[in-house]
Q: What sequence folds into this?
């Protein structure tokens, strides 16, 4: 099993609530993180993603299961004996130390000689774009700079694994996007596996090699960002990542019939079974149908047409009252003018682009 | 009326009463004491209005022609008082520091309850509380009776009228003064910093020395100062728990005023204690002023 750097086997954790009950934070989680992988734990708050991260760093003791890092059992090791470093959400820089002292801390603790320490600190700060800032105090720096110091401090001892606990959540949007790309580049240069925790699905899709979507203490789906977006295994994943139009119904040949009589066409694959299923159509998969459109269509009464720059977002309902969201490229102004006037649209879709979520996968 | 003038009037109105009070009742007596310390003692108490610098010489051990030959007894008393006050600070810190961590981790309700308990002693007279310690520590007191009855000792121990008894009594009296500043800095300690230290490979002991202690140092220093200063000049505790055996600066001064009726020498002693403390405080302010400037930048 040398291709995985971290292995969780049946990791379980429950917390007692003040009311005397208990909440399952981790429900027998199995997870393998590959070498040199950027893995994101994505989920709403309370889904167990932070608990999972803390179990790996050693701040949460598991009720059951094992954690192996690089083949070694870490389950009972304290945080300071694990080859793992963390970038904390609020940076957690030591206010009584300079940037240089903060960055050197892990080396100092490990007993690295002073001259060598200085060299490595300079290199680490250069890596995060803070050359020559050794003498500053953390609070003299901007949020983004503090973020970088936290990063330099966590990577300087070359951990086998870097954990990032929502490190970008305190930054403004532009800085955040810049840091996303930098983090990804840095991970590539270092060749260290990153486990990144976030509740921001856009962030997860942008940076990750693989994304683990968590909910209720379980991994709902673990796959590449594209697979998770295109082929969610259940409706939770489908609605949590991106906007979605979900149609629950029964399979009937190459179409799915909902209880309100809406008919969705899709392309059958050998794995398609019969019975109940949910069809997923992403908003951007709809396009405005011209007369004589060969593709299957849905007629929609529009409630709102929102211009968001590169696209128009259409919000409407089918005659049966089902809500539909569609995203139309803003280039086709003439058609938009038409539907703005009539407040009706015929939305077409490609049956091959319809993803079918089948209940067996939803277990 | 212009805003500037109005501001000034406000300032005078707001700060006037307290300034007046302090000028009359603090600076006034201080000035009297200062003048007195340079006067000669009268034969039957009171003062002679002549310049007489020997009071200060006497403290340092040089002979005062009126009283004695070279004798460093006052320096010895001063040093012993410093020692006892320092030990009091240390013992109070050893009690309060761990307790502050425990209480800081409690829920809001229990926290407030514990803080209330710590201030509870203020509700009773200090003298009464100290005499209870006499009952506990004396030869026929609680501790000795218990040890005797269990057969652990054959004769009562000398617990009371010792340096130990004074330190015990002073720690008891000054615990709230030490606890409050220590608790204030422990309570606002950011535990994610402790986590970060552990995460970066520092064990619990190193994390304590490198992170927890430096970050709670302001509270420790503050507590140490406000315990050390009154402990150095305290005379109630040594009088009650030290008996006649242990002389401290506070008792010495009290004695000069009330028993020996040598007001000039008592004043000189008081001035001396005050100036030593002032120097200590200035050193602290200067040292923390720099750190304070850093801290201000760190906000």
A:
């Amino acid at each position: 099993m040398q291709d995985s750097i971290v292995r969780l086997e049946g990791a379980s954790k429950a917390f007692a609530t003040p009311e005397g009950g208990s909440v399952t934070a981790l429900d027998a989680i199995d997870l393998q993180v590959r070498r040199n992988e950027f893995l994101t734990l994505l989920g709403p708050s309370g889904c167990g993603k932070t608990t999972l991260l803390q179990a790996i760093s050693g701040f949460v003791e598991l009720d059951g299961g094992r954690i192996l890092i690089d083949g070694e059992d870490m389950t009972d090791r304290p945080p300071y004996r694990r080859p793992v470093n963390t970038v904390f959400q609020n940076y957690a820089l030591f206010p009584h130390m300079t940037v240089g002292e903060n960055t050197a801390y892990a080396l100092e603790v490990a007993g690295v000689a002073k001259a060598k320490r200085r060299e490595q600190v300079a290199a680490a700060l250069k890596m995060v774009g803070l050359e020559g800032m050794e003498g500053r105090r953390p609070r003299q720096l901007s949020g983004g700079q503090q973020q970088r110091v936290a990063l330099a401090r966590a990577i300087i001892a070359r951990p086998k694994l870097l954990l990032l606990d929502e490190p970008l959540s305190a930054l403004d949007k532009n800085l955040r996007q810049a840091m996303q790309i930098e983090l990804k580049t840095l991970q590539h240069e270092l060749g260290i596996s990153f486990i990144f925790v976030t509740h921001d699905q856009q962030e997860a899709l942008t940076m990750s090699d693989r994304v683990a979507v968590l909910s209720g203490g379980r991994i709902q789906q673990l796959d590449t960002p594209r697979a998770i977006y295109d082929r969610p295994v259940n409706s939770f994943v489908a609605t949590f990542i991106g906007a979605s139009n979900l149609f629950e119904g029964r399979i009937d040949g190459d179409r799915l019939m909902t209880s309100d009589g809406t008919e969705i066409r899709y392309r059958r694959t050998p794995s398609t079974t019969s019975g109940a299923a949910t069809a997923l159509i992403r908003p951007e998969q709809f396009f405005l149908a011209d007369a004589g459109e060969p593709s299957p269509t849905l007629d929609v009464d529009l409630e709102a047409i929102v211009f968001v720059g590169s696209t128009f977002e259409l919000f409407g309902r089918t005659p049966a009252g089902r809500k539909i969201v569609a995203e139309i490229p803003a280039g086709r102004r003439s058609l938009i003018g038409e539907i703005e006037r009539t407040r009706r649209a015929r939305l077409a879709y490609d049956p091959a682009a319809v993803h079918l979520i089948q209940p067996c996968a939803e277990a | 009326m212009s805003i500037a003038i109005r501001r000034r009037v406000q300032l005078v109105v707001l700060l006037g009463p307290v300034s007046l009070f302090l000028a009359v009742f603090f600076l006034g007596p201080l000035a009297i004491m200062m003048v007195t310390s340079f006067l000669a003692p009268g034969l039957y108490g009171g003062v002679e209005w002549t310049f007489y610098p020997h009071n200060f010489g006497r403290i340092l051990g040089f002979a005062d022609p009126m009283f004695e030959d070279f004798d460093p007894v006052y320096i010895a008393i001063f040093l012993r008082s410093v020692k006892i006050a320092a030990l009091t600070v240390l013992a109070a810190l050893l009690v309060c520091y761990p307790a502050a961590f425990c209480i800081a981790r409690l829920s809001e309700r229990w926290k407030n309850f514990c803080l209330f308990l710590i201030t509870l002693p203020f509700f009773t007279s200090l003298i009464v509380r100290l005499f209870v310690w006499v009952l506990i520590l004396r030869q026929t007191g609680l501790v000795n009776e218990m040890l005797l009855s269990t057969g652990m000792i054959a004769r009562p121990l000398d617990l009371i009228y010792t340096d130990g008894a004074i330190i015990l009594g002073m720690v008891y009296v000054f615990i709230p003064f030490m606890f409050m500043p220590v608790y204030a800095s422990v309570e606002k300690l950011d535990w994610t910093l402790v986590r970060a230290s552990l995460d970066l490979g520092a064990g619990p002991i190193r994390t304590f020395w490198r992170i927890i202690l430096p970050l709670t140092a302001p509270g420790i220093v503050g507590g140490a100062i406000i315990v050390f200063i009154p402990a150095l000049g305290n005379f109630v505790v040594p009088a009650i728990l030290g008996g006649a055996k242990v002389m401290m600066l506070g008792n010495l001064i009290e004695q000069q005023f009330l028993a020996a009726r040598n007001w000039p020498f008592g004043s000189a002693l008081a001035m001396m204690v005050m100036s030593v403390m002032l120097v200590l405080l200035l050193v602290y302010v200067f040292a923390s002023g720099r750190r304070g400037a850093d801290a201000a930048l760190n906000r």
